[in-house]
């Protein structure tokens, strides 16, 4: 017959084992949901090569298509996906407005947005946009790029007519003459340049924020091993993409149903040397983040710099990339 002490020890051991099993189960969910996007080419590589399916054979991998950062963040906040591919500044805006998310990985540094005008447009400078219609997808990098660009010539969103359209609809509106300018996003922007002769009115890579991968705080707390597995897959995809630019272009062209030269133009503007969230990205976002307060896109009194510090968590990428 067991003594009281033995019973207590057995009970404690059983609880510990149960907690270990529960923690392990929570770390790698039975279903993992991610988005893929044409503006995030490494996501296409991970999906196409089934890198996660191979790494996590006991986990069902589900993919959801995102047209832009706003959609991606909506899916993340609603629980439709666990990992969101977005622009860094869009993630900052989301967290600043109450979304409990954190950024765990840098996919790339793209020049994926610029202000675009039609081939025969009379608009020659940013100042010419005063009073004009600009198509932009609210809450995305192109939208925030537009505000920063206008600010360089003393204009604000109140000096123009912002027409809130999803990226493909913005391109169509520009080509049909329904708007005067469009806050473009690759590969649609590259397509407009090569296929309809659209011109880039204003470019500034420092106003393009990084392409990032984000999760919800709760997911990060419950499933750190899943984050490790996903970052490993994205790192594998990033390295493969760097070594095989022509194959990535072919993949992007096939997935997005684009001419190969359009895909190549987009990728020529994408720097794949980034991976770990660092002071470099944080400082760039803090500089750009001031626009969120100035344009009243966040709640009054929000400390955007503090939000950025809370958003970025480099330990996951450091753990994987450092190996």
CATH class of the largest domain: Alpha Beta
> Main sheet?
5 strands, mixed
> Into which percent range does the helicity of residues fall?
40-55%
CATH architecture of the largest domain: 3-Layer(aba) Sandwich
The string of secondary-structure elements, in order, is: HEHHEHEHEEEHEHEHEEHHHHEHHH
Subcellular location: Periplasm
Keywords: Signal, Transport
Main location: periplasm
Domain Solute-binding protein family 3/N-terminal: 33-244
Short characterization:
With 323 residues, the chain is of the alpha/beta class. It has helices spanning 4-27, 41-48, 51-55, 69-78, 88-96, 141-151, 167-175, 188-196, 217-222, 224-243, 245-256, 260-268, 279-294, 304-311, 315-321; strands at residues 31-36, 60-65, 84-87, 101-110, 115-117, 133-136, 161-164, 181-183, 199-202, 211-216, 270-271. It holds the Pfam family NMT1.
Q: What does this 3D model show about the protein?
A:
The protein has 323 residues and is an alpha/beta fold. The chain folds into 2 domains: 7-110 and 210-321, D-Maltodextrin-Binding Protein, domain 2; 115-207, D-Maltodextrin-Binding Protein, domain 2. The protein has helices spanning 4-27, 41-48, 51-55, 69-78, 88-96, 141-151, 167-175, 188-196, 217-222, 224-243, 245-256, 260-268, 279-294, 304-311, 315-321, and strands at residues 31-36, 60-65, 84-87, 101-110, 115-117, 133-136, 161-164, 181-183, 199-202, 211-216, 270-271. The strands form 3 sheets. It has a 5-stranded mixed sheet with strand order 7-6-8-5-9, sandwiched between helices. A 4-stranded antiparallel sheet has the order 3-10-4-11, with helices on both faces. Strand 6 (133-136), helix 6 and strand 7 (161-164) form a beta-alpha-beta unit. The longest helix has 24 residues, at 4-27. The protein is globular. The N and C termini lie far apart (50 Å). It comes from Acinetobacter bereziniae (Acinetobacter genomosp. 10). It is found in: Periplasm. InterPro entries: ABC_SsuA_sub-bd, Solute-binding_3/MltF_N, SsuA/THI5.
């Amino acid at each position: 017959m067991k003594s009281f002490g033995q019973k207590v020890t057995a009970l404690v051991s059983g609880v510990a084992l149960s907690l270990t099993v529960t923690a392990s189960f929570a770390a790698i969910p039975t279903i993992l949901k991610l988005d893929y996007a044409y503006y995030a080419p490494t996501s296409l590589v991970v999906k196409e090569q089934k890198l996660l399916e191979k790494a996590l054979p006991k986990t069902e991998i589900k993919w959801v298509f995102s047209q832009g950062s706003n959609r991606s963040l909506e899916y993340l906040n609603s629980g439709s996906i666990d990992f969101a591919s977005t622009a860094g500044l869009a993630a900052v805006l989301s967290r600043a407005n109450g979304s409990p998310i954190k950024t765990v990985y840098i996919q790339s540094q793209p020049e994926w947005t610029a202000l675009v005008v039609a081939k025969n447009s009379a608009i020659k400078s940013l100042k010419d946009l005063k009073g004009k219609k600009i198509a932009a997808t609210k809450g995305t990098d192109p939208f925030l790029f537009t505000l920063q660009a206008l600010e360089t010539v003393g204009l604000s969103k109140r000096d123009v007519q912002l027409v809130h359209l999803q990226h493909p609809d913005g391109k169509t509106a520009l080509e049909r003459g329904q708007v005067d300018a469009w806050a473009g996003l690759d590969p649609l922007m590259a397509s407009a340049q090569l296929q309809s002769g659209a011109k880039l009115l204003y470019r500034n890579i420092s106003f393009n924020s990084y392409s990032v991968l984000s999760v919800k705080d709760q997911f990060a707390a419950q499933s750190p091993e899943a984050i490790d597995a996903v970052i490993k897959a994205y790192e594998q995809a990033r390295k493969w993409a760097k070594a095989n630019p022509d194959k990535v272009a072919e993949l992007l062209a096939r997935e997005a149903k684009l001419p190969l030269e359009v895909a190549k133009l987009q990728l020529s503007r994408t720097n794949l040397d980034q991976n770990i969230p660092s002071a470099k990205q944080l400082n760039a976002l803090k500089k750009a983040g001031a626009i969120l307060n100035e344009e009243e896109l966040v709640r009054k009194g929000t400390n955007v710099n503090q939000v950025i510090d809370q958003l970025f968590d480099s330990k996951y990428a450091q753990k994987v990339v450092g190996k």
